[in-house]
């Protein structure tokens, strides 16, 4: 589940990364190590630290993690870092480097970073326990021994940061509609369900509700059938918990990488393409028809927040321009509009949306507010698309599902591709989609009208 407005949990990991890298580089500069190529040494250490941390999952410390987990991560990280550190001498032939100073550097790095990591861990526990910050509101569906044990963990382990609100028993006095109403009205963040107490149909309804309302759903495993799905397995104290959907972009590091890529890519397009293309197109658009150069339309973005999506105006201005989707041989499309729509040039101003953080270069295409409200009620799991930022292009568009939605099959398949993208995101996948989009623009697409 994406972080809600006002929550700053997502910044903890990037900040820790930056602080640790600062310590690594500052100590290397301050100590008399006698390296002949300082920039090479600093780049080598920084890159090695990042690669090792990704391998050991050094920054993957969940709110329910035990202290032993932190100590294990520190040990693993610095064992590899020690080997990589001394390997620099042999790899880059540095006979003048002081081995003693290198040992001192390693020791100080170990002390400073370990202290910082443990201190961050302890302070976060205290912050949740005593100041009630970084809290997640939860409900439990199920009335059995394991469900009660989990509730006891929520109530006793305040440092985990879970605020238990209510327990539902579908076998005795509650119904799923009762649960759904309470969850929506009380802005519950996470739902924990004992699968032993729900029927297959109820389980399906619960999953659909969580998807469509953007709630995090996790299971207390009591039923072997649930293991047929691809699930994420975690422990809260000694209680096993299963999570149905693991979204890569919920990881702050992944989100940071994607945002950095979006910023760089959008700046390149804005500075080197839109800077000269916009005045040229503005002149042609104004000469052909009255109206603004840019067309803006309200659309739904991440967490269903509305924003104005920008395009070069390709149609004559009408009263229903914000509500009616373009169709084949649409009489509203101008001559220059036909060209820029065919080549997707009309979409380029959305790089301003990307730069402002409202969109991403790659992601599920944002729909008009009217269509979101319609499909959100009619198409199963449609709202899952809003777990991430919308994109200028997306996996569904490269697979032929772009433009006008003519049949229900079009939107159903578009949603399937969007959900696959959300659950399987990687930077390599983004680059592949961008390359495919550019190739499709040159070749021309059937539904680019």
From TrEMBL:
A cellular-component GO term for this protein: membrane
UniProt topology in membrane: Multi-pass membrane protein
GO MF terms, alphabetically ordered: undecaprenyl-phosphate glucose phosphotransferase activity
Record-annotated Bacterial sugar transferase domain positions: 258-442
Cited InterPro entries: Bact_transf (IPR003362), EPS_sugar_tfrase (IPR017475), Undecaprenyl-P_gluc_Ptfrase (IPR017473)
Domain of life of the organism encoding this protein: Bacteria
Keyword Membrane carried by entry: yes
Keywords: Membrane, Transferase, Transmembrane, Transmembrane helix
A Pfam family of this chain: CoA_binding_3
Transmembrane portions of the chain: 12-33, 39-58, 70-93, 105-127, 263-285
Localization annotation: Membrane
The enzyme's E.C. designation: 2.7.8.31
Family as reported in the entry's similarity comment: Belongs to the bacterial sugar transferase family.
Protein name: Undecaprenyl-phosphate glucose phosphotransferase
